[in-house]
Amino acid sequence: MTKLITRLAILPVVAVLATASNSSAQGLASRIASASDRSVQFSYKARPDVCGDGRTYISTGPGNYEGFYSTTSSEQCQNGPVRVVLDLADRNVVAIRTYIGPRAVDQGVTDLGAVSSIEAADYLITVAARADGRVGRDAIRAALFGDSVEVTARLLDIGRDQTRPLETRRAALSGLWRSDSRQLDRVGAALLQIATDENDVQQVRTQALSVLARLDHGAGIQPLIQLASGNAASWIGRESMRVLSSSGDPRARQFLRTTAQRTDLPDELLSVAIRGLGRNYVTGQDASLLRSLYPRLTGERSRDAVLASIADLGGTENVQWLMGIVRDDKLPPENRRRALEYLSRSGATTPSLLALYDPTPDPQLRSALIGIYSRLADKAATDKLVWIARNEQNTQLKRRAISALSRSSDPTIRQALADIVER
C-alpha cells in the first residue's frame, strides 16, 4: 500500500512540472509572437563549459570553436549568457542565430531580456519539433547551450520521428550524448533501436551509431561491439566497426586488435578494423601488430589500410619498414608502388627517396619516383631529375623527367633543359 500511495503522490507533481514547463514555453512563445519587429532576441544562462565573444565565435571546449576565431582577438571568451536571435515571417521562425558572451542588441531587434534556461529550452525544442530544415537543427543547438537543461525525452521523440527532416533528427540524436547518467540505459536502447531499423534512412542510423560510441561511461561500446561482431557482411556491421574505430575505450581498442587478426572477414570490413586501429589511439604495439599482418593479407583494401596507418604514424621504424616493402623485388610491383606512395607521405627524407631510383629496374616504380621528386621540389630532388633527364635510357621516363623540370622558372634549370634538348 505504501508503494502505491507513493507513486500516486508523485503523479500530480509530475503533472504540475509538465504543465509548468509547457506554460513557460507558451509564455515565451506568446511574447515572441506579439513582437512588432521581424527579429526578436532573448538570453539565458549558459552551460559552464561554453563561452564566446558575443558576436563572432562560440567555444565548446579547448581548441573547439564555431564561427570565426582569431588568436589576435582582444575579446575574452566569456561564459554567457546565451543570446538567441529569431528572424520571423508571419509569426513563424525562419532563422535562428545563437551567440554566447557579452550581451548586445542589434538595430531592429526586439529584446525580450533574460529568461530561464529551462524556459528557453522548452520553447526552442518546441520550435525544433515543428520546424523544417535548418531551423530545427539550430533550435536544438541553441537549447543545448543552456545551463542545467534536461530535454532527453523530447530529443528522443524528435530523433525517432521519421516524418521530421533528416537534419533536425540528426541534431536531436547528436544532443543525446550529453544525457544524464541516470538515463544512459534508456538512451542507449533507443539509439540501438534506431540504428538497427532497416526501414529508417541510413544518415539517421549512422548518427545513432556515432552517438552510441560517445555516450558517457562507455555505455554504448558493448552494443556496438555486438553489432560489429554479429553483422560482418552487412552495412550495420561496417558502420559499427567504423564508429568503434574513433573510440579510445579499451574494449573498443581490444576488439579492433582481435578483428584485425581474423582471416574470415570480408576485405572491406577487415580494412575498416585495420584503419581504425591505426588512427587516433594507435600505440607502438599496435603499429608492430599491423606490420606483422601485412605479409598475411591478400585483400587490396586491407593491405592499403596497413600502409596508410603505418605512414600516418611515421617514425624511423615505420619509415624503414615501408622502405623495405618498396625494395622487396619478391613482392608484386603494384604492392611496391603503393608502399612508395605512402612512404613519400610518412616523413621519409629526400636522400632516402633519391637512393631508391638507381637500384630499381621497374619502369613504373621509377616513374612514380619521378613524380615524387617533382613534388619535393628541393634542390637535391631537382638535381636528380636533371640527372634522369640526361642519363635515363628509357625514353618515356626521360620525357617524364623533362616534363617535370619544364615547369620550373629557375634559369639554371631552363639552361640545363636547353642543353639536354640540343644533345
List the helices and strands and how they pair.
Blueprint: H1 2-33, E1 39-44, E2 51-52, E3 57-61, E4 64-67, E5 82-89, E6 92-100, E7 109-114, H2 117-130, H3 134-144, H4 152-160, H5 166-174, H6 184-195, H7 202-214, H8 221-230, H9 235-244, H10 250-260, H11 267-277, H12 284-293, H13 300-313, H14 316-327, H15 333-345, H16 350-354, H17 363-376, H18 379-391, H19 395-405, H20 411-422
Parallel strand pairs: 1-7
Antiparallel strand pairs: 1-5, 2-3, 3-4, 5-6
Helix pairs in contact: 1-2, 2-3, 3-5, 4-5, 5-7, 6-7, 7-9, 8-9, 9-11, 10-11, 11-13, 12-13, 13-15, 14-15, 15-17, 17-18, 17-19, 18-19, 18-20
Rg to the nearest angstrom?
30 Å
Low-pLDDT runs of 5+ residues are: 1-21
Strand order of the largest sheet: 6-5-1-7
Let me know the average pLDDT. Answer: 88
What is the total tally of β strands?
A: 7
